[in-house]
Amino acid sequence: xxYQLNKKLINLVPYEPISGEYEVRLDANxxxxxxxxxxxxxxxxxxxxxxxxRYPDPLCTDLREIFAKKNGVGVDNVAVxxxxxxxxxxxxxxxxxxxxxxxxxxxxxxxxxxxxxxxECENVVLKKDENFNITVDEIITxxxxxxxxxxxxxNPCNPTSCGxxxxxxRRLIKNVSALVVLDEAYMDFWDQSILSEINDYDNLIVLKxxxxxxxxxxxxxxxAVSNSVLTRAINAAKSPYNVNTLTQEIxxxxxxxxxxxxxxxxxxxxxxxxLYNALCxxxxxxxxxxxxxxxxxxxxxxxxxxxxxxxxxxxxxVRCFGNGLRITAGTKAENEKLINCLDKIL
Length: 346
Ligand SMILES: *Cc1c(COP(=O)(O)O)cnc(C)c1O
What we know:
Layout: H1 7-10, E1 24-25, H2 37-49, H3 61-71, E2 78-81, H4 83-94, E3 101-106, H5 111-118, E4 122-127, H6 136-145, E5 150-154, H7 166-174, E6 179-183, E7 204-209, E8 222-226, H8 228-237, H9 245-256, H10 258-280, E9 288-289, E10 296-300, H11 304-313, E11 316-317, E12 319-321, E13 324-328, H12 332-345
Parallel strand pairs: 1-11, 3-4, 3-5, 5-6, 6-7
Antiparallel strand pairs: 2-8, 7-8, 9-10, 10-13, 12-13
Helix pairs in contact: 2-9, 3-9, 4-5, 6-7
The structure holds pyridoxal-5'-phosphate.
Residues 29, 83-85, 109, 154, 158, 183, 185, 209, 211-212, 217, 222 line the site of pyridoxal-5'-phosphate.
């Protein structure tokens, strides 16, 4: 008898980032700044000293302490993951039971529905309007009418770069009984975080990642911030050695370096401003540049596919959605090359 994959696996295809060699990659919202020579030397020294034969610290004690202090929360409010992606997976698989309803928004980060179906939960998708707006009242009504167990969305949002203000987010959390998972992956670029308020709520988990503003996509490091009851549950549900020793050590070095973190953020914001202003030149009825609260720009255009393909022939890759383009802020040279090519294409 032949082995058969089950229903939830049989149609799955492995995640494929854009393949091929491109000179300019503005497709994945990564930071264009990598660690300095000086920090690399510090990293080398922890590699030299690491106890490779031993398991890592299962609770990431030092790293949690550093993160907690920088963010004005307690150590018992912080759980660490192998990227926030892993944390999303843990939350879906452990805080939900088969058939539970999860409210997501559309468009939003695609991994929410991916993990939701893996956890065999029902995904209730709430569509944003044509300007990518959605009111908190719509979310509250949808969650409560469906008796949802979880609401998960990014704020500010990937891919739209739009955001919902803190005051409205607070009103949402207070008016639902669902667990609200607030993905603040891009909140380093906006000022509406409610991360420090997690102890005011029994139903809030805030996710943070080191892959974007901090420029550590390579090491896979993310945080879940919540009251101590929820944090304890996450720490109990995760696999014990989910964050490897090198990631913990590198994370400690980088997150302790306030100057690096602050400078990176400033340079990325500067790059975003430049890109936004340069792209706005092309604004017309078929090409609408959205105001951005993130490190990328979203453009609504029916020519998305055409522009995307033409940019590729110039060795520039961005992210293409049906009728939109998402372009990550890059180095000065990368941004200029992009604008030069767009001059020709448009
Ligand atoms: C990039 C991104 C993440 C992924 O973060 P990792 O820590 O790299 O797994 C999570 N949420 C959103 C909205 C993102 O855009």
